[in-house]
Write a structure and sequence with these properties.
13 helices, 5 strands
């Protein structure tokens, strides 16, 4: 219970840190759009991806083995490229939506990311939600509803212009892409690690966002006076907050889930309104605090019950046994549950090889090799192995009998043979037992000379 309590509080605090960072990005974006009349969604996001590339892609390049940069790009580069494109376009659509619609509409439509994450987690991550999770989501959405209601009463929802529908559609599209990106991020963070995810986002995100910036905003960036310190401060503050948000978000997802992260981010709207009261002369409304309490309570209720994904254990279950291929050669079988593949011949398959019980797996454990014989096979009617084992070396298991028979003479000073040679010969093992009337000579090794 103490561990669960610490996990809940850690998830709540990390979620609020991410929410505060998102509030900073929202305030900087609002000031750039309304005060300085700069609409550069691709340009401000490009700095974030460059920072991710400089830090995490470099970190990934310093690794070796399966987690190295070249190995990840070679094996999963296309998937990360598609995921980076989804993430870049999600940021672009939401930031562009602020130019056409109101903040209230963005707050309301941004909640669409929650049902998207719930549906994708249920379909692809095999997360099964319980009643307590539905209750937590309901409390968070009720809190957002109170916030929107307060904005409507204050008159901040009204905005002139016939392009408001375009802004709402852009916000819905961005929320959908955010949901896809968050679910994929949860799978990668819980299955691999956050360094690989952030490194690939920095590498491919910089490439995709840079191309988009050169095509769409090249003239706008050239016309901005970058020598004014307010513009530089706002762009730098937005990029730094967005970079830190990308760093904190995987930590929240690792502790909880993508759904819990998006629920915790609902409090960012509350922080934005408090900032507006302090700096932009927004009117205070009692529903603000009610909204905040409902959202935080909903997050606590949601994370009380963990929501593990079905693929968190990516460790390959491997067991090694010895078998014989169709050509008669002995091979080492490296198997996963329900499969068997050869580790000595590429992709050879041994699906017809019967599964061995636990006593039969592994190398022969002398002086008790009878656990490898057929008497332990399922359904065998052979006589059980006697409890008394002979003092002489017994026969090796069947799978080791095709080894070449060595024959050599060793030099011994003053040996019993002419020329100082002495034959080192193993004695013939005694007959051990008879199984179902079979001759015991079938269990003998014969003369083996060393």
């Amino acid at each position: 219970m103490k561990a669960e309590g610490r996990s809940i509080w850690r998830a709540l605090l990390l979620g609020q840190v991410a929410s505060l960072l998102l509030c900073v990005t929202g305030v900087c974006c609002h000031l750039l759009n309304n005060t300085h009349h700069l609409q550069l969604p691709a340009a401000v996001s490009f700095i974030n991806y460059v920072l991710l590339c400089l830090v995490y892609t470099t970190w990934l390049a310093c690794r070796s083995g399966e987690g190295s940069l070249l190995r990840v790009v070679r094996t999963k580069g296309l998937k990360y490229f598609v995921l980076a494109a989804v993430d870049v376009e999600a940021n672009y659509l939401v930031l562009r939506a602020y130019q056409y619609t109101s903040v209230t509409s963005v707050q309301l439509l941004d909640c669409f990311v929650v049902p998207v994450v719930l549906a994708l987690s249920w379909l692809f991550l095999k997360v099964r939600y319980k009643l307590v999770h539905v209750l937590g989501v309901g409390l968070c959405l009720l809190g957002v509803g109170c916030l929107v209601w307060a904005n409507v009463e204050d008159g901040k929802a009204a905005i002139p212009g016939a392009e408001r529908l375009l802004g709402d559609m852009l916000c819905l599209g961005g929320a959908t892409l955010y949901g896809i990106s968050n679910v994929a991020q949860e799978y990668i963070v819980k299955t691999y690690d956050s360094v690989e995810f952030l490194g690939m986002m920095g590498l491919f995100g910089s490439l995709i966002n840079g191309i988009q910036l050169a095509i769409l905003e090249r003239n706008d960036v050239g016309s901005v006076r970058w020598d004014t310190w307010p513009v530089l401060a706002l762009v730098g503050g937005f990029s730094a907050a967005q970079f830190l948000f990308y760093v904190v978000a995987p930590a929240v997802i690792r502790v909880t889930s993508a759904t819990a992260l998006n629920l915790a981010l609902f409090t960012a709207d509350f922080y934005i309104l408090i900032t507006g009261i302090a700096f932009f002369r927004f009117k205070f409304h009692p529903l603000y605090f009610l909204s905040y309490i409902l959202v935080v309570t909903g997050v606590i209720v949601f994370v009380i019950k963990p929501t593990p994904i079905a693929s968190t254990n990516r460790g390959y279950y491997r067991e090694i046994s010895v078998g014989r291929s169709s050509s008669g050669n002995e091979v080492e079988l490296t198997t996963t549950p329900g499969t068997a593949t050869s580790s000595m011949g590429g992709g050879a398959s041994f699906t017809e090889w019967p599964p061995l019980p636990p006593e039969v797996r592994g190398c022969p454990d002398y002086p008790y090799p009878h656990s490898h014989s057929t008497e332990f096979r399922q359904g065998s009617t052979a006589t059980p192995v006697p409890t008394e084992y002979p003092s002489t070396p017994p026969s090796p298991p069947q799978q080791f009998r095709s080894l070449p028979r060595p024959a050599r003479r060793e030099q011994y000073p003053g040996g019993g043979m002419p020329g100082g040679q002495r034959a080192a010969t193993l004695h013939r093992p005694a007959r051990l037992y008879r199984a179902n009337g079979a001759s015991s000579s079938s269990h003998e090794l014969g003369d083996v000379r060393c």
